[in-house]
Amino acid sequence: MVDSILVSVDFSNKNNTGVLIVGRKRMNQSVEIINAFQGEEAMELYKKLIMKKDGDKK
User: Fold this and answer.
1) DSSP of 7-42, one letter per residue?
2) 25 and 34 Cβ atoms separated by less than 8 Å
3) What is the C-alpha separation between 3 and 16, in angstroms, rounded?
4) Best CA proximity match to 3, nearest among 44, 31, 35
5) Chain-wide mean pLDDT for the chain?
6) Which DSSP symbol is given to 55?
């Protein structure tokens, strides 16, 4: 099984309301949005995704 998950973030909003979107690449190359997070929850997930297991940023 191959499953391609795409993650996009935007924290450029001046009032600090960021967004993290999760999508899945379909067989026909289109992307299906499967989840979205905003604010603190988005930032926490983003930090988890970019941290290496040993705690260092990539």
Assistant:
1) EEEE---TTS--EEEEEEE-TTS-EEEEEEEEHHHH
2) no
3) 32
4) 31
5) 88
6) S
Q: Which two tokens stand for residue 54?
A: 């040993």
Residue type at position 4: S
HSE-up (13 A, CA, CB side) for residue 5: 9
Q: Are 40 and 47 in contact (CB under 8 A)?
A: no
Give me the amino acid identity at 11.
F
Q: What are phi and psi of 44, to 5 degrees?
A: -65, -45
Query: 3-state DSSP call for residue 57?
Result: strand
Coil vs helix vs strand at 56:
coil
Write down the residue that tokens 């990539």 correspond to: 58
pLDDT for 16-35, tens place per residue?
Answer: 689 999 999 988 889 999 99
